[in-house]
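Hello again,

I reread your note about wanting to compare the complex against the isolated chains. To keep things tidy I'm splitting this into two emails, and this first one only covers the full assembly. Below are the input lines as submitted, including protein chains and any nucleic acid or small-molecule components. They are followed by the predicted structure of everything together. The single-chain runs will come separately.
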Amino acid sequence: MSSPPGRRARLSSPGTSRLSSEAREELRRRLKDLIEGNRVMIFSKSYCPHSAKVKELFSSLGVEYYILELDQVDDGINVQEVLTEISNQKTVPNIFVNKVHVGGCDRTFQAHRSGLLQKLLHEDSANDYDLIVIGGGSGGLSCAKEAAKFGKKVMVLDFVVPSPQGSSWGLGGTCVNVGCIPKKLMHQAALLGQALQDSRKYGWEYNKQVKHNWETMTEAIQNHISSLNWSYRLKLREKGVAYINAYGEFVEPSKIKATNKKGQETFYTASTFVIATGERPRYLGIQGDKEYCITSDDLFSLPHCPGRTLVVGASYVGLECAGFLAGLGLDVTVMVRSVLLRGFDQEMAEKVGSYLEKEGIKFQRKFTPVLIQQMERGSPGVLRVVAKSTEGPETIEGVYNTVLLAVGRESCTRKIGLEKIGVKINEKSGKIPVNDMEQTNVPHVYAVGDILEGKPELTPVAIQAGKLLARRLFGGSLEKCDYINIPTTVFTPLEYGCCGLSEEKAIEVYKKENLEVYHNLFWPLEWTVTGRDNNTCYAKIICNKFDNERVVGFHLLGPNAGEITQGFAVAMKCGLTKQLLNDTIGIHPTCSEVFTTLEITKSSGLDITQKGC
Amino acid sequence: MAAMAAALRGPVARFRSRTRAWTRGTRGAANAVGAGQQQQQQQQSFDLLVIGGGSGGLACAKEAAQLGKKVAVADYVEPSPRGTRWGLGGTCVNVGCIPKKLMHQAALLGGMIKDAHHYGWEVTLPIQHSWKKMAEAVQNHVKSLNWGHRVQLQDRKVKYFNIKASFVNEHMVQGVDKGGKVTLLSADHIVIATGGRPRYPTQIKGAMEYGVTSDDIFWLKESPGKTLVVGASYVALECAGFLTGIGLDTTVMMRSIPLRGFDQQMSSLVTEHMESHGTRFLKGCVPSLIQKLPTGQLQVTWEDHASGKEDTGTFDTVLWAIGRVPETRNLNLEKAGVNVNPENQKIVVDAQEATSVPHIFAIGDVAEGRPELTPTAIKAGKLLAQRLFGKSSALMDYSNVPTTVFTPLEYGCVGLSEEEAVALHGQEHVEVYHAYYKPLEFTVTDRDASQCYIKMVCLREPPQLVLGLHFLGPNAGEVTQGFALGIKCGASYAQVMQTVGIHPTCSEEVVKLHISKRSGLEPTVTGC
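Full-complex prediction:
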């Protein structure tokens, strides 16, 4: 053991020392000068393997250090003795960073893991910035702003490469510009369409002719987004974070090149980097796709109504878009290669799908497009789509005004110079593997958000991870981002909220016989008057029988599922059990109260359909 | 057996009307009653008799029947002074939660129609609202629920009597039906679940004659027109809210504070929001006289306490919402020896829901000190039946009951109000996190979100146990439920903060609360 933490070395008293007190003072001054004069000072022995490890660490961090090899200087024994007095540590390596005694090998690595080392290193950096964040989306911005709170010098680089259709946008990333925000607002527009229909049943009377104007809606939504872009810039400025609208690319371990719209290049250095470049929609790589198809990058700012639309893909993006387009009165078809909402509970996914079908959306399952042709130009034009069965030679053709691809997203990690500094990515997915501290294989480079391998692609997750990362890096915090039991909601016309495991995953983890699934169909009170179906909304919880019926999965298909699920996620964080659900009083009359009265287990096979009048 | 004997000594002989013999339920009653009578009086006996077919009573009865017991429910709706009557199911179904939430929904839809054009929907003016159409739809739904309750009782073999019940002695109840026919029912256990009815200010001249209450409003065939709502209970504010929402000229007259018993900061935000959305408020005013004008309208005279002056106004409808009285006066409780609190006439109960008579119980709004809420009555009724008939010994937990006031901007809450928390733990030991937020959907329509506000009341000592949550905003009812569970699970502020939000929702603002009142910092949420 080179540095047993906490072990107190016996202090030599002057009387027993081989040094005169004068010589001792002189040596002490010399060592102090070394410690104070070097950003990183390592007292080491050339043969010590632990010392070698520490040197490697600092090399990998790209940090310069000064070494005194005790076995290679004449008064090495005396140095060790005085060092013991200074640091209370007798062994080597003995490391000081920015005048602070870090400890030995173990302590140094521990400090590195906890972020303390980085913090110490940044106290007096020769770099331009303490932190450079590449990507101004939810995760990047939250990390940058939090770091700035600790008085750090922070820069954010954000640059939107226009989509193949030419769509581009401002600061804030996917969520604000081409994700959560515009989709929820278009979802709301569709819900209002439903509300208009419902309202007549509730006594409202007005002209039957109600049309939807795409341009009015889009303009209103884009105005809101612009105001958000603006407020993000303002907030960065308020917090003293430097913002550059330029494309960031690593050129050296601690140096990046920023290229702006005009092609001007600038270089910046930082001691720590956070990659938060997010993802962009994937294309199919078939003839005509980049020329004629749009993606979610384009839809929300489309200057004209998309008309008859084919949505390719049944990811949540695909289904949400299909849902609101149909809700606005458009003719919508969804082409699905295999399953709906991959990764989500499949029983729920099918229920989401059948509701969409009820809303008039057509599904073409087990087909994938092979060719897109333009038949007419225009706004929108006319496109011919040829698709091939995934199971046989069968092909089908269709004519649409718009083809929206929602076939997945690609990480923006391949063109930012990661290979130059040795940051590993998953070659297949482009995702970046990180440890539980969001650290990449290169210690001073971190990553948050959608580009993380095996982590949920959700705004609030990125925000949380970014914030906690900054706190660990600069605030001495040890709290890690907890990626377990993260709630989410698919904003299809009938919303699907969930938290925890899908039934499939739960069976995989706990085995079917150890689980009890409680479920019920329910009829929202507001639907009664409008005569909407009484066996559509569905609630399901999955409990671990051998852990006090702890709830390991929560699933809800119904109005306002997003609003409902949040509180249950808090409860799951606190160890929610079936008994606690039973003991909790419902709020009447709401949809959410259904969870306080779930009595029927799936295994019982009992009927859960609700009777009509 | 002693109890049985007591039952037989009852003064049943007075009643002469006939009832059909109940095959299993005679228990020798014929002997006792028949002697010396011209017409034989049949008595039916049960394991459990529930008086009152509302949420609590029905839940209790059905649960007991499911446990194999012989159960009867006696329900009777005394028409309101205005003559409104309804079917089985009690307040919630007929003149409470259900119709009010539906009319609240009608009002919300009105707001959505206004919002719709911002979202591209081209709705041609004028937009009108037909009370008649709405009321009919709501009433039809209520009637279907009445039917459903009847069917459920039948399915579970619970005997239903549409009779007005009162105690004969501690084991026997007599019931009179619409035609004056009398039935005698005896039972080992009796549950009183008669609920409450709106209070009339009988001291005010014209109040009974011209005013209506929540017993009537949902059953009006024609629009109430320009309405004065007197009172500031949640019933008053909810009614005033939806009336305003469907386009009626609505005024609330309140004597003192709104939503007594609720967090007062939240309560004033509720009324502030209503005021900004067109409900008029006459604060510190008390009505003194209602007169009918030759036009058919009502002239209301009131006193303004602040100025001491008298004022008058003309309305089409005056709605009293000044509280509710428990339905205990006609039960002849003294014959059974059941004690009520003389101040409020509510039945005094213990943790087992037992009254002063061990085999007589009371649940729901009629029981003293219980929250007047449907789901608490249901749960209490169920648990009571389970305890009575041996399925469980679990007591009803009346703490941390969540509820929501369905005013136009909904107010959901669970746990302690800020005032209660401070009173209980002291200002120094309470930390309140709060935020003003803007729902995403409001941005496009530029709706005013000044009253969208959340506060979480916590203990100050780490890990800062959550004592109460208060949420004012759209869908508060839906939002609050899950958090109620969180609080039940003993959630701490730290745990709430560790929960990842669902974006973009209003409920995620709860897990983002980070400004404490103590810090004095601006609690307005801006952006993501």
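For quick reference: Chain A touches chain B through 91 residues (CB under 8 Å).

B.
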